[in-house]
Amino acid sequence: MPDTELTLARTGGRPLSRILFSTEQIAERVREIGREITEAYPKDEELLVLGTLKGSFIFLSDVVREIARPMEVDFLIASSYGGGTVSTGEVSLLYDSSSVLTGKHVILVEDIVDSGTTLNRLLPQLRTHNPASLEVCALLHKHIARDLVLEPRWVGFDCPHDFVIGYGLDHSEYFRNLPFIGVIQP
Ligand code: 5GP
Ligand code: MG
Ligand code: MG
């Protein structure tokens, strides 16, 4: 359990209803995923890890350091939520990576799969660049989406149907810096 005073200092006094995944649990799962990704691709073929900003920035930075092979890292910005806690169904690409995807193994790193709208909009766009392969690595999966164009090959944790924060995930841009994943009190 993290120190309560330190947590309140990080949230500006806003209490959490509960902690879902601790720093230690996350670190262990990230190591496992890193090992699996390392073994999943031939070492002499190109790998591009493509993170979706901003939510995946912490997960991506931890997971790439557990992948023991050469790779490229890049980001794109897909925005579906605005400031609220309910998906609008619209996904806009605010920044489109200029990396070459063609012929490379591409792993799209997502913070969380909720309605699946983001993945269902992004994946077909990425496929038009003819990557050698395209997989998704998601920190969290709510298992709400019924018609995902591609199930994530790697999932950190199955996630309850709450609005979660921390370890990169925000509420109105705050709480990304919490070193664990939790639910804030409404
Ligand atoms: P989807 O398109 O799958 O509905 O949602 C994807 C995006 O919505 C995620 O990448 C994330 O930015 C945001 N999102 C969905 N659920 C949550 C949640 O529980 N907490 C936070 N902080 N963001 C979420
Ligand atoms: Mg995201
Ligand atoms: Mg957000």
From TrEMBL:
Keywords, ordered alphabetically: Cytoplasm, Glycosyltransferase, Magnesium, Metal-binding, Nucleotide-binding, Purine salvage, Transferase
Pathway annotation: Purine metabolism; IMP biosynthesis via salvage pathway; IMP from hypoxanthine: step 1/1
GO molecular function (one): magnesium ion binding
Family annotation (Gene3D superfamilies): 3.40.50.2020
UniProt-listed GO biological process terms: GMP salvage; guanine salvage; hypoxanthine metabolic process; IMP salvage; purine ribonucleoside salvage
Compartments where found: Cytoplasm
A cellular component annotation (GO) from this entry: cytosol
InterPro entries, alphabetized: HGPRT (IPR050408), Hxn_phspho_trans (IPR005904), PRTase-like (IPR029057), PRTase_dom (IPR000836)
Keyword Ribosomal protein: no
Cofactors, names only: Mg(2+)
Residue span(s) of domain Phosphoribosyltransferase: 23-170
Keyword presence, Signal: no
Record field: catalytic activity: IMP + diphosphate = hypoxanthine + 5-phospho-alpha-D-ribose 1-diphosphate; GMP + diphosphate = guanine + 5-phospho-alpha-D-ribose 1-diphosphate
Principal cellular location given in the protein's record: cytoplasm
Family membership noted in the UniProt record: Belongs to the purine/pyrimidine phosphoribosyltransferase family.
Protein's UniProt name: Hypoxanthine phosphoribosyltransferase
Species lineage: Bacteria, Pseudomonadati, Gemmatimonadota, Longimicrobiia, Longimicrobiales
